[in-house]
Every structure is written in C-alpha cells, then in structure tokens.
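@channel anyone free to eyeball this complex?
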Amino acid sequence: MSGNLQNAIVELNEEVALSLVKERIEAGEEPESIIEALSSGMQTVADRFEREEYGLAELHMASEIYNESVKIVESKFKAPPVLGKIVLGQAAARLKDYGREAVAGVLKASGFEVYDLGEDVSGERFAAKAREVNADVVAICGLQSTNVEAARSAVSEIRASGATAKILVGPGISCGCQIVVDDKMRQMVGADAAWNRVREAVDLAKSVVKKQEAALA
Amino acid sequence: MSETFSPRERLQKAIDCQTPDRVPIALRVEYSAALWAGMSCRDFCCYPHKASDVIEAAFDKIGGWDGVDNTWTQGVRFTHLEPQKPMIPGVDLPDDVPMEFSSEPSMTADDYDVAIKQGYYGLYSELIARRGRKFNRRTEEELFLGFAPIYRYWEEKKGVPVIRGGMTRPPVIAFTLLRTFEEVSKDYFRRPDKVLEAVNATYKECIQMGETQSRLVGCNYVFVPISRAASTFMSERLFHKFFFPTFKEIIEQLVKDGFTPRIHADADWTPFLQYFLELPKRKCILELEPMTDMVKAKKILGGHMCLFGDVPPDILSLGTPTDVESYVKKRIEDVGKDGFILANDDMMPHDASYENVKAIVDAGKKYGWS
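replying in thread with the prediction:
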C-alpha cells in the first residue's frame, strides 16, 4: 500500500495519490506513516531531478501533489512534528528564479516547516520572519548575477537583527544569469554555507538542526 | 593580423560551420551602454533612437564587433507586444535599472481555448486588450516599420549586420511566459490534451509572426527563445510531447523561407543536444550558456550547427578584464574557430563594466584568428 502512494507521487499521478491518502486515513492509518510515504515519493522525484530524468516541471507537480496530500492529512490530524523551521525566499533580483518553489517543496518533504516569503524579499522581511518563528535556518534562494549585492545586504540585516538562524544561500534557476555559488561567492554574500543542488540544501539544513540539538544536549 | 572578411561574411562563414579569418564577435549590449554614457535607463527603454546612439558610442569606443543585437527596440517592443504589465525605469522603477515585467500572470487555464479558437495573434490580442492596450497585425506592422530606419543605419552606414529581426516563441514557451512556468508545469499533467491542442493550433502563426517582423525591418535573423524547454525545465518525455515536434516544424519552415533562426537556449541542454541534429544543417545558430557543456555541444553538433556564446554575466559584473580574457581564450581553444560566434551569454547585466565588455572584443580579436 505504501508503495502505491509513493509511486503515485513519483509517477505524478495526482488523482491516484490524493485518493490513496484519503483511503489510508479512512483505514485508520497513522498520519506519520502516510507523511513518510509521501516524503519518500518526493525524495525519489528529487533524485530523478538530480539525475536529469525529471525537470523542474515534474518537481513542481510533485510538490503540488505533496502539498495537497499533506493538507488532507492535516485536516484530519494534528500536524506531525517537524525537524526544524526554515524561512526561505529570494533576495531582490532582476530575473525570476524558477527553483525556489522546488527547493521549498523538497525541504518540506524532508520534514521541515518552511515559510516561503516569495520573491524580492528584503533583509528586513527575512529578519522579521526569522525572529517571529524562531527559525533554525534562513535559506536565500535564487542567487544570480543580478542580486549578489541584495543577498549580501539581506545577510547583514538578518545578522544585525539578532536572529540566530544559520544563513544558507543557493543559486537561482533562471535564464541567463546562472551562477555557481562557490566558496568565494558564499563569502562575498556572507552566508554560513552554500548549496548548488537541491539535495545539498536538505543536507545542510539537517546538519544545522543536528548541531543545534547537539549543542543543547 | 589583418581582416579579410567583412562582418557579414565572417558571420555567414561561421553559420556555414566553416572557419572565417577570425572568430566573429556578437554582443548583446543593453542598459549598461546607457549607464556608461550617463543616459537614464528610462530613455534607453522608451526611445529607440537614443538607445541605438549609446550602443553606437560603445561600439565605436570599443573598436567595433561583427554583429549587433536590436536591443534599442526592446523597451518599445515589449511595451506594445507583451501582455504582461511593463515596469518602466524612472516611472515604476528606479531610473538606473532595466525595464522589468510584473510577474502577475496574463493567461488563465481557460485561455487555452482562446488560443485554440483564435490562434497565436488572437490570444495575444485578447490578453493585451485586457490590459487596456491594442494589438493586431497592423499595430505590429507600424511598430516594426518604425524600427526599420535604425536597422538600415547600422547595416548601411556602420557596415554591421543586425542579428535580430523578428522574434517568435514556440507555443509552450509563450504559454510559460503568459501563464507562469509553475502553472504550465501543472497543466502538462492536469490538462495535457488542452495544452497540446493549443500548441498545435498556434505554432504556424508563430512562424508568421517571426517572419513578418523580420521582413518589416529587412533583417533575416529570427530570434527563437526556447530556454524553458531545456532539460532543467522538463523531462525528455515532456520535451517530446509538448515541444520538439512543433519546434522542429517552426525551424524547418523559417529556414525554407530563407531566414536564419537564432535558437536561444539558456539553461542546461546537454541531455537534449542530439535533437538539434534533426534541424536543418548549417542554417541555424544555437546560443548556449555555460550550464550546457559547450565542448560536448561542439562534439555532437560540430559541422552541423553554428554555436554562439557564452561569456557569463557574473564575470561581466563581478570579474575583471583578465577573468574575461581567460574565459574567452579557453572557450576558443575548447570550441575551435569553425562554426563558432563569440558572444556574451544572454542579456548583458546593466552593471557590466565597460572594461569587461571591451575585454570580450579584445580577447576575441587576440585569440580568434585562424
């Protein structure tokens, strides 16, 4: 049964996925195991994206199915515990970033509570939200050649606000203004760490939370 | 080294996948030229003649190159021909940044039916009318005839080809712009038959639009942007289903009618490169950016299609002339001097430094000789 729900997400079959979620709730299954099956399907979709078998279109559709499914689960049960809280958005840029929603989707499916602030996010908004929700991570997505300065300024504002979140930065998927976020670029922006692939964003966020837990233990 | 080819001959030799006297250089200079000259971005956006003048000033100061883009038309063209709300520098934006479009979508799911019933021009007319503006074939004609004298000036007085006449977006590319990429991504799965029907109902008019615009300005290069069909954006299955068959027909028809398609392919095309072998041989330009493996592209498409690219924008904004020179030298070494046009990748950032842009031309003229 678990395999069917995973497969429905992997094969991007929205109708089947949503009806399986409803069936499993009605059959009395625990919400955690339903979410686990959904997350596992999303991870496979993310793997296919990394291997270039799927594009962003598939990743968007999978995120949509995942989000719709989680809404159904949450309408029946209390929301399951989360790994950590992430405030995410794109610093002001000339070109739209097509990857932000995909990164948000995969982070959600990996167990994080994600507050997606959208595009053109100022440092002030990042900082205010990070403080409001006591975020573990601020993820500045969509770095491109047109917004390095805006991202750098956002990082300064977040730090100056007293927010304790670690700041991650990752590249945009836009047309024509791609950059690889290497260590030099990370330092230029002033972030704590950088990702270049969706998977790396998840691993970095997990390692931040793990370190924080270890520090508290 | 002395030049034995004219810019036009040099470009044509590269399109023929042969080796000219020197690798041709084509730059898409935009708002940076206005800022170098102390002109406001509003003037560059709103007044094509003024925009052409500052590009000419940069062209002369740098020492010239082989193909210029029609960026002087951009602000006026986009304001009249695109349904999205334009945001004009000095009006809706600060006066030292380029024009943008509001990200608000113009097309709903129901508008696939408008495309199916009324075609490509009908869809654009309808969406532009909703913004309180008018668009039809006559307004298009008036607009492009107005640009024609600037084209003639560059071609006849400066002796430099303008390498973009009209533009045509294959249907799914247009839909992703009008409706947002995210929504069309979902449409591929939620209403695939409707999307496909709209693609099939509109692609022939796409060809007409590109050809008409090019004829009106007397330029045979047609710009065909296809970035949102790259492997970054869609799987091979979606590519086959929604994009490639009609795209291929668009390119074949343009070539048959005597036009040179400039296939503008940002994002990662590496997994799809072999498909370009199905397009007419030695008739098109394929514009790539560094996300695509240019060396692999040359290996697969060498002798079949002229490659164009790809000095990245971040080097022009954040790097030094030495960085630019190293990039150009390596690119020419990697790709060779046959069937290659040296260019900046996609739009030139408005904060590109003059020295870095000049370094593209200097390096091309230093390392590009055959």
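from a first look: Chain B has one domain: 7-75+146-367.
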